[in-house]
């Protein structure tokens, strides 16, 4: 028997899904254990082994691989919890990371923040100036050496950084993506002085044009690389001690995994790795259900995440923004806000109720956990409203205290606003649904899509309690709650479903139409690089898929659009077809007639993505069919539940998911209790259990 395991480490819970080559799927959940998240990983693996009825050593000895998604990289950057690093760049160009291309005041800001000019600042520099040093060297735009590297000046700069306690150095020289020799020599010099220093080169991490983004990407990758290396090394050692046979893989932002030993070399690629797991899972489940347009939503303990699948493929982006800095990392496009089940409710200076972005996380957790938390959260409101069972979560293994939840809501929300505890809880529930609906509008409508053309998938521990409400906010009529064995561990299911995906890119700006031979040379170089990287993963693939694309733009415009280029030999007709596709995609993104063909088109960056197909991935098993649509055999009682503050508390049927069969139909209002989550079927909706055990909620 061979197993594949996906492990999703969140801020509050760590989830795992196990699949074997016979089609069995198991899921488990355990509290996350900051600051040492590896303990939570071991705990959840032991919970899986307990379900299998064998020691964890026996399970891991038969494991083909573990795919691990971690929030540690993203959390470290967002919270600024990173060690000091050094930065070496070309003489005269140090201040580019402080000037920030004049973008630093507004990149990643909301419309409200953009309008508040007086409130904008650039007080988020990546490194202090004393740790940003220059070396004498210069290449021209074609990569020719204009000024040779002054190795003695480089040595002085390196020694200055090391004397100040720096143990990791980012190197980003002007035009190095056209000729990496000077950067590579500086790395050699660093290791001649101290072989233990962690070094990142922009020519390897981000070989793209545009100095500020390349510098920021390289620095951030250097900030998290050593910590990721130490965490993964420690985790892998613990797994090997427990007889893990296969490799430990790490999820990347691009929707695929990479070997743990390779991940720290380009650590920035793991930022947001957990965020993409649910989208990958949605693609996999969509193939089984025949859905090609999907809104994937994940409400965990800390965040609300939303991503899109369009025509069967996840929507991708070639860059992202972190702390006002542009980051060159291919990623699945996932929007996030701090609005999870543990998001804290609070009142702002204007007397308005706000939810998040602060979270109670695993420690101390929501007030109802009884672990010392005193601030009210979404989970506390849901307990007071009757949505969550008083006996607790995880089938009662995680007890909840309703009195503590009421006290937190009373003192922090109800009394300041002059509301009853019940009305305050209903207000928290309503605000949560409204702001998650707002993010969905940004995700779908602002990307040029009609939500009515999509089905919404809802997962995460808190997602099923809110999904019907936030779907209604944007006009989506059909909601799928993946249940069965994956339930709230759906992102871990996505991790277990992932393949190895590696990307390489290279900027080589030129006007269209391109010389086909030039494009072929660039793609051949990139394909050789990703295929060599695939060979280092230590895995056997059933196949390899290669995708090629070029970032194009209209001349003198800034908006670049990733444009697919077909495989095979390129000729003038293929180059022309790519230009036509670029104009089509540009119009879809920015509106008909928004382009300006007369200005000309430029090819900027070439990109190749290689997918190594792993031998097997999870397929959800089919559920036994019911004799009739009547779900009465699964009804376990009723309780007072408030799903709408204007209606108040009403007697609501409560169903035990384990007793539901394919074809059972529930009429709202209803609650479905699953060991790892709770599903709300609101008024004026119905829920139907499908052949895979998922619950389909449809507005009537």
UniProtKB/TrEMBL annotation:
Acetophenone carboxylase-like C-terminal domain: residues covered: 521-691
InterPro entries per UniProt: ACX-like_C, ATPase_NBD, Hydant_A_N, Hydantoinase_A, Oxoprolinase-like
Hydantoinase/oxoprolinase N-terminal domain: residues covered: 5-193
Domain Hydantoinase A/oxoprolinase: 214-500
Matches recorded under PANTHER family: 5-OXOPROLINASE RELATED, HYPOTHETICAL 5-OXOPROLINASE (EUROFUNG)-RELATED
Name this protein carries in UniProt: Hydantoinase/oxoprolinase family protein
Organism: Rhodococcus jostii
